[in-house]
Amino acid sequence: MPISLNEIIEREVKDTDDTDIDLNTLDNKLNNLPILNSPNLKKGKGKVTFEKFNNIQAVAKFINLKESKIAILSSIKDQAGIYMFFNLTNGNCYVGSSINLARRFRVHMFNVGSVKLPLPLAINKYGLNNFAFLILQYCESKVEICVGLEQHYLDLYKPKYNILKLAGSSQGFKHSPETIAKLKSMHAGKLHPRYNTKVSLDQKILTSMALKKYYLENTHHSKGKKGVLSSQYGIGGTKVTLTSENGEVLTFPSINAARKHFRVRFTTISLNVNQNNPILIKGVKWNGKTE
Questions:
Q1: Burial of 264 (0-12, 13-18, 19+ CB in 10 A)
Q2: Which residue has the higher pLDDT, 165 or 255?
Q3: In which domain, by residue range, is 172 found?
Q4: What is the pLDDT of residue 90?
Q5: pTM as predicted
Q6: Is pLDDT above 80 for 185?
Q7: Can you name the residues that pair with 289 across neighbouring β-strands?
Q8: Of 25, 140, 202, 224, which has the highest C-beta tally within 10 A?
Q9: Exposed, middle or buried by CB within 10 Å (0-12, 13-18, 19+), for 110?
Q10: Same structural domain for residues 12 and 90?
Q11: Total count of domains within the chain
């Protein structure tokens, strides 16, 4: 009889101790995987993909799986939670959960080049350097909580590399949609995206080091911008560009970001922009437009 998809997944990516590997085996595996050209993140599709990556809310983000291996394993040691693999080339992703994140990461890496499933095939095709690892949320080390949270993020991000869209089914922990709904209700507090997401000082330092290294080697349209001038500030609002009578041009990701920058009322910006009227701020006239 032909083997079923579920049997393939349970056999090859099962989340148990007997599938784990040691660090030497992991190093040998990673050293033999391809390193390919990275996309241009300054324009075109690369820019759009990187903006998508930046907009994902996560406890921590690590770019380049091989270079970040030590930082990743240090951060997730003895931790349970929800994670994501993100392809910086095309924006596709994989979402999973585990009561042992470090073991799960090692198994994912070991499967690259040997398991014919979407995620390991994609990592092998695009290269370790073009994938990022994100910790979406830490949680208690209980399977039912991990599964409920995983379903939340599967519904939210609709990851293309996940074959099974029902959380837990790849681990032999099977839930019906009705059971998943009950889990979400029963563990509402634990399933909140911000539950138990306090970041340690060590984690902040490791994340900062990884991002600084990345930005030294790459660029981004918001590089050097902080606070309200950053594209991450006010995500989800109406983008507005203001041009002063002196020729200064400022672009904000939202009207709220603009009013906070100038320390004026929201309506001072919104009403004048909507009516195409110049805005007088501290004696200077600004013309605005929204996108």
A1: middle
A2: 255
A3: 5-217
A4: 92
A5: 0.58
A6: no
A7: 241
A8: 140
A9: buried
A10: yes
A11: 2
Would the pLDDT of 115 be above 80? yes
Claim to verify: residue 115 and residue 243 sit in the same structural domain? no
Which two structure tokens, joined as six digits, stand for 85? Answer: 């693999």
CB < 8 Å & 24+ apart, contacts of 113-120: 113/29, 113/32, 113/33, 115/12, 115/13, 117/8, 117/9, 117/12, 117/13, 117/163, 118/94, 118/160, 118/161, 118/162, 118/163, 119/85, 119/94, 119/161
Q: Cα-flanking dihedrals φ and ψ of residue 80, to 5°?
A: -115, 155
- Interatomic CA distance for residues 166 and 151, integer angstroms: 7
Whether 180 and 112 share a structural domain: yes
In a domain, 146, yes or no: yes
pLDDT of residue 105: 93
Query: 84 in a domain, yes or no?
Result: yes
Boundary residue ending a domain (217, 251, 278): 217
Backbone angles phi, psi at 138, to 5 degrees: -90, 155
Is residue 222 one of the residues assigned to a domain?
no
Last residue of a domain, one of 217, 237, 262: 217
* CATH assignment of the domain containing 48: 3.40.1440.10
49/257: higher pLDDT:
49
Does 27 fall in a domain? yes
